[in-house]
Amino acid sequence: MPEKLVRKVTAVIQAENLSKLYPPRTRAVEGVSFKVDEGEVFGFLGPNGAGKTTTIKMLTTLASITSGEAKVAGYDVKRESSSVRKSIGVVPQELTADDELKGIENLILSARLHHVPRSESTKKAQDLLKLFDLEEAAQRRVRTYSGGMRRRLQMAMGLVHSPKVMFLDEPTLGLDIQTRTKVWDYIRRLNKERGLTVFMTTHYLEEADGLCDRIAIIDHGVIKVSDTPSHLKEKIGGDVLTIGLSDGEDLTQFFNSVPDVSDVSREGQVYKMKIPRTERALPTIIEGVTKRGLKITEISFTKPTLDEVFLEVTGRTMREEEGVQESWIQNVNLERAT
């Protein structure tokens, strides 16, 4: 990712012991605390049913808060919900654009719903159509749009009132890799050029790794870890080095003696070990092998991934479900029942 401009750090989202209890005894979120700084891209990850959507719904005033406090854009979510709604843009998983309206008509309608003055709404709509490469499709009905075009229009609709914070719930769900990459570029551009703060969920861990300044992993309604992607990957043990040698003595003891090397295992003449940074330890390893008169027949290493972090933290894959399936519609129905 390109280096970002240095900005004054100010918390735009603050959650303190935030909890949500649905009747009769379903605790969807239990005492989560975190903050998101101005101009940050913050990723919120977790298995289905972990509490991601419920947390977003509380922060965006779509669900009441059972206990705890939250502020968004400086406004108290419980007491100043109207001001919060004016300050945020929300792009849910479900596409909400009207298929029978043209692209520009959807944007102007969204602007009017957000109380953007009529004198400004058309200009804002045209600017956003240009930003998201939808100018040529502006006069087409949305039913003729591809999935990627619909997703880009949805993002434009969330920006038409110039929010301070954008909530993106799986912004590239179901898109092919080329379209996903383009949407990533739009998010980076909005963040870098406009200083837009982004709070996003995603099931694509490479997406979180490439886009997010920090991520939090939530499971069973509790935040398990929160840090930068690079720090989280370092914490699980660093690189995994695989080295194959010609026949000779067992070098397990030697490898264990190299500074920072751990978890050495051997299968035949192939050794595997964990190293925080392979590039630092590799010269010592190669020198030691050579001094013992052995030849290296293969060598490779892999960097830790967010997938490995996620599995270590939750013990589950990203798509694995446990308990009740989480969705915007289900939570709205539960909310109405309270």
Biggest sheet statistics: 6 strands, mixed
Element pattern in H and E: EEEHEEHEHHHEHEHEEHEHEEHEHH
C-alpha Rg (nearest Å): 24 Å
Task: List segments where confidence is low: pLDDT < 50 over at least 5 consecutive residues.
Answer: 1-9, 321-338
Number of domains: 2
- Shape designation: elongated
Classify the beta-strand content into a percent band: 25-35%
Oligomerization state: single chain
* DSSP summary, beta strand count: 14
Strand order of the largest sheet: 6-7-8-3-9-10
As for the CATH topology of the largest domain, it is: Rossmann fold
CATH class of the largest domain: Alpha Beta
- Structural class estimated from helices and strands: alpha/beta
Q: Mind telling me the CATH superfamily name of the largest domain?
A: P-loop containing nucleotide triphosphate hydrolases
Counting DSSP H or I runs of 4 or more residues, the number of helices is 12
- N-C termini distance: 44 Å
Helix percent band: 25-40%
Note down, in words, how this protein is organized.
It is a single chain. The two termini are 44 Å apart. The protein has two domains: 11-99 and 152-233 and 310-337, P-loop containing nucleotide triphosphate hydrolases (Rossmann fold, 3-Layer(aba) Sandwich), CATH 3.40.50; 237-303, 2-Layer Sandwich (Alpha-Beta Plaits). It is elongated, with a radius of gyration of 24 Å. 37% of the residues lie in helices and 26% in strands. The protein has 338 residues and is of the alpha/beta class. It contains twelve helices and 14 strands. Strand 1 (11-22) and strand 2 (26-37) form a beta hairpin. Helix 3 crosses helix 4 and helix 3 (103-113) runs parallel beside helix 5 (147-159). Residues 1-9 and 321-338 have low confidence and may be disordered. A six-stranded mixed β-sheet has the order 6-7-8-3-9-10, with helices on both faces.
